Amino acid sequence: MEKDTGTLKIEWAGQFMPVLSRIREQFVKEQPLHGVTIGMALHVEAKTANLVMTLAAGGAEVYITGCNPLSTQDDVAQALNRVPHVHCFAERGCSVEEYYAAIDKVLDAKPSVTIDDGMDLIHYIHTKRRELLSTVIGGCEETTTGIHRLHAMAAEGKLEFPVVAVNDTPMKHHFDNVHGTGESVLSAVMITTNVLIAGKYLVVAGYGFCGRGLARKAHGLGAKVIVTEVDPRKALEAHMDGFLVMSMAEAARLGDIFVTVSGNAHVINSTHFSQLKDGAILANAGHFNVEIDIDWLEAHASGKESRDGIDTYLLDGKRIHILAEGRLVNLATPKGMGHPAEVMDLSFALQALCARYITEHGKELSGGVYEVPEAIDVQVADQKLASLGITIDTLSDEQKTYLSNWDAGT
Amino acid sequence: MEKDTGTLKIEWAGQFMPVLSRIREQFVKEQPLHGVTIGMALHVEAKTANLVMTLAAGGAEVYITGCNPLSTQDDVAQALNRVPHVHCFAERGCSVEEYYAAIDKVLDAKPSVTIDDGMDLIHYIHTKRRELLSTVIGGCEETTTGIHRLHAMAAEGKLEFPVVAVNDTPMKHHFDNVHGTGESVLSAVMITTNVLIAGKYLVVAGYGFCGRGLARKAHGLGAKVIVTEVDPRKALEAHMDGFLVMSMAEAARLGDIFVTVSGNAHVINSTHFSQLKDGAILANAGHFNVEIDIDWLEAHASGKESRDGIDTYLLDGKRIHILAEGRLVNLATPKGMGHPAEVMDLSFALQALCARYITEHGKELSGGVYEVPEAIDVQVADQKLASLGITIDTLSDEQKTYLSNWDAGT
Amino acid sequence: MEKDTGTLKIEWAGQFMPVLSRIREQFVKEQPLHGVTIGMALHVEAKTANLVMTLAAGGAEVYITGCNPLSTQDDVAQALNRVPHVHCFAERGCSVEEYYAAIDKVLDAKPSVTIDDGMDLIHYIHTKRRELLSTVIGGCEETTTGIHRLHAMAAEGKLEFPVVAVNDTPMKHHFDNVHGTGESVLSAVMITTNVLIAGKYLVVAGYGFCGRGLARKAHGLGAKVIVTEVDPRKALEAHMDGFLVMSMAEAARLGDIFVTVSGNAHVINSTHFSQLKDGAILANAGHFNVEIDIDWLEAHASGKESRDGIDTYLLDGKRIHILAEGRLVNLATPKGMGHPAEVMDLSFALQALCARYITEHGKELSGGVYEVPEAIDVQVADQKLASLGITIDTLSDEQKTYLSNWDAGT
Amino acid sequence: MEKDTGTLKIEWAGQFMPVLSRIREQFVKEQPLHGVTIGMALHVEAKTANLVMTLAAGGAEVYITGCNPLSTQDDVAQALNRVPHVHCFAERGCSVEEYYAAIDKVLDAKPSVTIDDGMDLIHYIHTKRRELLSTVIGGCEETTTGIHRLHAMAAEGKLEFPVVAVNDTPMKHHFDNVHGTGESVLSAVMITTNVLIAGKYLVVAGYGFCGRGLARKAHGLGAKVIVTEVDPRKALEAHMDGFLVMSMAEAARLGDIFVTVSGNAHVINSTHFSQLKDGAILANAGHFNVEIDIDWLEAHASGKESRDGIDTYLLDGKRIHILAEGRLVNLATPKGMGHPAEVMDLSFALQALCARYITEHGKELSGGVYEVPEAIDVQVADQKLASLGITIDTLSDEQKTYLSNWDAGT
């Protein structure tokens, strides 16, 4: 029988996810999630499907919907629905009402563990579905923006169950954010616009992990990278890393391509639009579509023309091109594939192991944000190195002694 | 009235082609191609359409077909057919018979000037349509492979009209080949496969202009680049540029991703296939689909599975993934966009000016391969710098004197 | 009157230390160190002299000696001794006995604040001069290795006064370690050996802040960088950053140049020496000369030949070249200049402000290792940006609200 | 017996010159230069000494002096004078009179072959010692500037014997100029000034082979590179390679460090000095000390202070720092070591083989500039690859046929 395209995509991605594959084999044997109901709101595409299937293989009943109206791949969603113990409600291009209706469906399953990318499930539970607070053991959160929101909640004492901050662990942000965002944003921008990166002024708003990966790789393709920041220390790092550092007010006049990865709202706004060069290209790679003030453009532009993945606004006779409606450009642009499989292998290996951890230990923990246990982080690194066939050094006893000794001097 | 998608694409590309736009304005005024029939075989997509429209705007009657069965964008072809004085016969996915029938249609128009990308028109005229040799004034050739073939013809005394080697001029190969191929191949591979470039062994077969652009940019994204070469001097350049240099026999065992840009046949062949790692990804960025010996794979693989733009062959239990059937990956993969607009701006500005040159001077020239006149090359550079707003230095009289003087010593 | 060379060097470095200069102006006015005796053991060269003079300008009586027998610049030491309130005991090439005698002289002044680079003063006080424990208010430590030793002491409950870990603050290790070590090691190796970096296998042992700066910059010059690590997560980072990652046992057979920056002992040892290629060059950039097991070489080599900054050992007919006797190569090689002035500007600005901080707050703190107060870290960043004329963005009220809000979702 | 420092230096460099070593072995056997007198004017340091000894080993009587008053290493010159059949007249810091007196001494030996770096010998013969024109068979020229002068002479019909343009052959300029100049200039600037490269605006005047090597490597260390050019095509290459391109008038206001590699006079002149930032650092890496108009500074500066390798001029209250008196900074700065041994291995292997070629074929050639025979160029590449243990591919018969065939099309 011919395979469906969703299954072909899932199998393709699975090939490049050796760590998750090994965990799946282990889960099949050990059934650590037996009897657990997991609710998920993630980008529903091929890599995520491999996580979902790993959780189901580990004994869980999995209910999943999207975490962004434009990031679902429908054929993958359909393929997932054919997997035993998996229930998928995501649809590409759904309305905001449909988006929240799907979240409700996930929550109707009364999950004991949640897995979020942007904290929508956790938020919804704490506000609209508070009856579930008694049944949820804990959650996992994937992204920087979600962690920010969780810390804000925790600071107000409003986070009522334990959540593992997967994003904050080294094996996540040093790979997924730096390399995954960096490469997938560039390929999405290149394939959507067909413009050359070499020689361009490419403005990166925000020099966090995502921003620095993007800056370094754009530079590696030949761009003149401009970094904007609000943190003076990160700004100096960018300066010494060889990038041009300036305020967005200055960058607006120079930039050819802009990518926001700040996690903040309106970093490109009405004060900047009028300064842009004719034909400037703007994209967002932050989690939410708030970084560019598109509402203002919609209200004030004298015209708008749309192509595949590109909306061109006319302002004072100049063209401003917005990619993917200002949503996560690597996922939401029509040809976008999201993060490469190999980085999602690491992130989702962490998610699978943290889902197990929260299942086993969640009840011992009070409400709050928790780090990924170091042993899990190291285990993922070890398994990835093994899959690459890379051997590294180990400390000899003499070296362990040396390191613990404060006596050896000049 | 709603614009069609072909026109939207053409206008989009045109925005990023300032040099060609300026030439078009000049052509509209001066009508240098008045009464000239131009026959073209090029990749029919949005950038090419801007060249075609420039030639038509200059007074020419233009007949065009594709130069590769998989590189045509049908909506662009249709939009071109709505432009006065333009006749387009290209269709994506045509058979070899249809491909050559379309070439015949172009030649039926009895062009006095030919513009080729790969030398198919010139070859066809010299072999199958020799009656046209009396009416053709001259031609222009776009690509490295075509130039190789032309030099081979000229060496045998078989090239019967003058052809300008656009590929060989600095403003072409230092930009189109280095940056255009480099970026478009990477974005095509990334968007087709969704694999990470960082950390991968990426093998580049051939360290010509295309190869070095690709190597440098892949390295800039974090790949460990391996270069294979047959020329010891280029091999040493690659070595000192920081790349790993080895034979393909050795590279075959290490590589994760292979891209051929050698202009040669079977640089990856049956002796290498069996050495590949499971899951190796192979793509070609040379003009013709001969660099990877796919015929051998078709004949010997134990299985084949196809996804969008990817054919997976099974050989000795290992998977070998071939992108875009081994054709030019940046154009022939389903999401491929070809070279970025800005480099085609330079290449097609050269083509437009060389078409004018051959119209005006072709009759004075005997059969053979000719360089682009330096004045044309410099003019394109000057106009591109002007469009970027970049000012450079000029030699003072004192400096001119210094440079022409051999007397000043230590 | 002609200036002496020491003064010329100090003034030269001072030009490139704008942040420290501004602090000096402030110190002159406010005299925050009035009456304080400061004991220092740092590399005595031109940048350090600017710190010493800043502390003296702030009212302190400063006693200083070196922290490495080969890193002192004698003309700078002499010039320092002509500065009021400064007493310098360092001498290049001193014996180990003389080295510790000089430390004793510094301690004889009964310092209330110590500034260390490698923890020699603090160690000496806690072991040999315990009578001083009653008069020391606190200390500052400059380097990674010193911090390791301090944490080991603190873990055993043996650190009896508060020490600020200058090395661990972002404004130190993101600049001094990454850029300072990276550049100064490369220039020292290049100028000592006159070998080409391009094309070489350059092995970096340790992928901490120093190692990654060195790796990136060596790669930027064209080296094929090999990284060895004991931490699987750092190893994977190196892998995805584009470097070759392997064990030292494997690297030993490939490497042309080796630089140890591990902070550990014997990372290149007798098991590796015999595997090295003829002519391999070994250097250390870690704080102590223990990273390469030179004692073993001294005992087992069949011959030794010395050049300026290079000792060549013969082993099994092969030459092994050790730079600067395995001491900090950027300081201890005869032409070495140490870290660039601009990074020491940041590090020493932190030291000056932390010396003030410990003076003002040390008595409130119990024994242990303390972070640099964030306000000091940010102040140094702000002043450096100001000196560069770089303006960055600031958060609007709307943005502050957005960031503190966990309510805004999809 | 203890070796002298000159011999130690020569042996050190010799280790990293495997191609020249192999040629020396061949020369010892074949004595191709038996009875030939060779006159040389080159930088007299350790790498050159290895060339000189190779020529002498091949049977020649060699007379050599320097080609720059500041580039001689006296201990190497002394060691050379102890080598049989070698006569060295170079002295570091000689006056212009002494410089030319030494050239006279070389010419007094009536050389039949000349080897120049900057064309001083050839110029002197054609102007002051025309009686030698009858005995000279031919010459070799090492550097870009010399070739320019030779072409100017040849254009006027004034070059009376054949000269091989070693600089112009791929194995010279793709390595010596790109990598040798790039690395040695950076290490010389870094070690002389102790400033950080990361974050600096580093201005490269001239984007020839030397300029692009320097630009790329400075960028690799973290500099923001600005390129100035007079050729619009090279300017565009620099732009797309990711560098900032502008006129020197604009660059003067931004730059922190300037390096001239233009081969032209006064590229930094009085119109630029007044625009420089306080503390700007200026160095020259072109052959002659004319690229920066130091005479103007000497005449107009209000003060001057000298340090080791640095002259600081005061102009309008600002400091302008000139390295190595504006002479070739990589050789003339006190700590400068010149080009790395590995690139001189290639260049001097070419020189040795070309000296043999001119000996054997010079009489057949008329006056003019000649390319290095391709067979010599390829031989050097092959031997270098062999010394690195690198194997590359060779064309199969099928591939040779494919490449010579113009028949294979789409």
Supply database-style keywords:
homotetramer, 410 residues, alpha/beta, Rossmann fold, 2 domains, eight-stranded mixed β-sheet, seven-stranded parallel β-sheet, 17 helices, globular, Ado_hCys_hydrolase_NAD-bd (chains A, B, C, D), hydrolase (chains A, B, C, D)
Oligomer: homotetramer
Q: Level of helix content of chain A?
A: 40-55%
Determine the mean pLDDT of chain A.
95
CATH class of the largest domain in chain A: Alpha Beta
Give the spatial strand order of the biggest sheet of chain A. Answer: 9-8-7-10-11-14-13-12
CATH superfamily of the largest domain in chain A: Adenosylhomocysteinase-like
- Termini Cα gap of chain A: 72 Å
Protein name (chains A, B, C, D): Adenosylhomocysteinase
Keywords (chains A, B, C, D): Hydrolase, NAD, One-carbon metabolism
Pfam families (chains A, B, C, D): AdoHcyase, AdoHcyase_NAD
InterPro entries (chains A, B, C, D): Adenosylhomocyst_ase-like_sf, Adenosylhomocysteinase-like, Ado_hCys_hydrolase_NAD-bd, NAD(P)-bd_dom_sf, S-Ado-L-homoCys_hydrolase_CS
Overview of the structural elements:
Chains A, B, C, D: Its cofactor is NAD(+). Chains A, B, C, D: It is an enzyme of class 3 (hydrolase). Chains A, B, C, D: It holds the Pfam family AdoHcyase. Chains A, B, C, D: One of its GO terms (biological process) is one-carbon metabolic process. The structure is a homotetramer of 410-residue chains. With 410 residues, chain A is of the alpha/beta class. Chain A folds into 2 domains: 5-172 and 340-388, 3-Layer(aba) Sandwich (Rossmann fold); 181-332, Rossmann fold (3-Layer(aba) Sandwich), CATH 3.40.50. Helix content of chain A is 46%, strand content 16%. Chain A has 17 helices and 15 strands. The first copy, chain A, has helices at 5-15, 18-30, 46-57, 74-81, 96-108, 120-127, 144-155, 170-193, 209-221, 232-240, 248-254, 270-273, 294-300, 329-332, 341-361, 374-388, 397-404; strands at 37-41, 61-65, 86-88, 113-116, 138-141, 162-165, 201-205, 224-228, 244-245, 257-260, 280-284, 303-307, 310-315, 318-323, 368-370. In chain A, the strands form 2 sheets. In chain A, strands 9-8-7-10-11-14-13-12 form an 8-stranded mixed β-sheet, sandwiched between helices. In chain A, helix 12 links the parallel strand 10 and strand 11 (280-284). Chain A is globular, with a radius of gyration of 22 Å. Chains in contact: A-B, A-C, A-D, B-C, B-D, C-D. At the B-D interface, helix 7, helix 8, helix 10, helix 16 and helix 17 of B face helix 7, helix 8, helix 10, helix 16 and helix 17 of D.
